[in-house]
């Protein structure tokens, strides 16, 4: 018998399973050990830990919105908590696993219909099981002149990524910012459409976000108030010209210069896509030796000059800003030239390497980074994550810091001390993402070794120290792995946790039995509130 939530008896659980089978068929109610393997987080810090690893007691896979509603009503009857996934990839943030042992996974992979792709108005409406690969292939098959934005890797679902505020690399890289219209099953099984979708014969669900009255779509992202069964997402009309490349600086300390130099360009819409600053050794073109010289450096061998030399031989900088320009060819050229002047003013030794493509596009000719900036999904071959330590996976800490060189440098100094204290130094900076014109998000992959609890414990301690140092400086995490959700929500504590108290008041009203993803993003229904764990 799987581990069940405390108040659920074995017989009630069995009865519930029988009722669920009547809705989705026996095949799609999974309770066996082997069936449930795929609902563990293979990349989680607690994988294989007898007490701490969260595993579901069952998984149920409905095939339609009607079935989701029926499933939800049954879960209410038995007061059984669930955890919803779309495709369950969620790399570095918890994967397919629930927050706590015993929750029932609602797996929406069978709901994989592309409801509409509208070329004229450049949007798509999709179900949760639709992956970025699915939508990309559909658009190409139809010959639509539309580009998507996708994360790397693009194996997950559009709804899963967007609802977690995930990012892509095109001008539409702020995925939630480009979401328009939701269909949501509420905790009592009721069905809601937001925005213009609330009007039965709407003609503009995919084009106007706000509808009438309070705009509530955000209540269903990073949230446990609903199960999203449809989402509208804006697509980018194919640009006539696409220019993509690298601005490179060779100094180890140039991270802050890069960030300072990028801010104005991003704010002025010279760079319109989600440009990304990262160490040259993470670039896929450098994959064969992935990170060896840096590891040597960490081990106290090798010299920084060797690494810089090797990177130069690969035509890479120590720090790289991978960016792109889109639009009419003259406008693209003008932006490119303006960008070069701007970087050279900050660092006269900045080097540039760019390629230009025009419609009709042959994506096969592009390198992995260019493809991503053109919204072509890949399996993560753009960057190499394992450059700091030998590891199997990562847990991400991603604070939002002010978009200044000064803040960037401060974060390097403070985090370097913490990394070094935990025996994981040096920390020289990490991946900086600019998914909106004013955002500087530093994404730090903390290494995870499968089943190595001691090693992962250090990563967890390191994570917590980074959170504390960030909170003291007013830098907040934008998204958290499940193990840290309470901890991160606890840092958003203005006025005695007014935000969390607000969320929990709504939670108790809409979900009195506390069945939808209890504890997600630190929001607990009353029944389980005493299980909140601030680590
Ligand atoms: P992906 O496979 O795209 O990376 P997941 O399916 O793993 O994303 O979803 C990531 C997280 O987003 C889940 O853990 C869950 O908390 C939330 N989520 C995913 N799909 C839905 C949905 N349809 N409705 C509500 N929340 C969802």
Explain this structure to me?
The protein has 535 residues and is of the alpha+beta class. Helix content is 31%, strand content 18%. It contains 14 helices and 20 strands. The chain has helices spanning 10-24, 33-36, 65-78, 132-142, 158-163, 255-267, 292-298, 304-313, 329-346, 368-373, 405-421, 453-472, 485-491, 494-510, and strands spanning 29-30, 58-60, 82-85, 104-107, 114-118, 123-126, 146-147, 179-185, 191-193, 227-234, 236-237, 241-249, 276-279, 319-327, 351-358, 393-397, 399-401, 431-433, 440-448, 476-477. Strands 12, 13, 14, 15, 16, 17, 18, 19 and 20 form a nine-stranded antiparallel beta sheet that branches. Strands 5-6-10-8-9 form a five-stranded antiparallel beta sheet. It has a four-stranded mixed beta sheet with strand order 1-2-4-3. A hairpin with a 5-residue loop joins strand 8 and strand 9. Helix 1 packs antiparallel against helix 3, helix 6 runs antiparallel to helix 9 (329-346) and helix 11 runs antiparallel to helix 12. The chain is globular and about 70 Å long. The two termini are 29 Å apart. The protein binds adenosine-5'-diphosphate (ADP). Adenosine-5'-diphosphate is lined by residues 84-90, 94, 96, 108, 128, 156-157, 159-161, 163-164, 227-228, 517, 520.
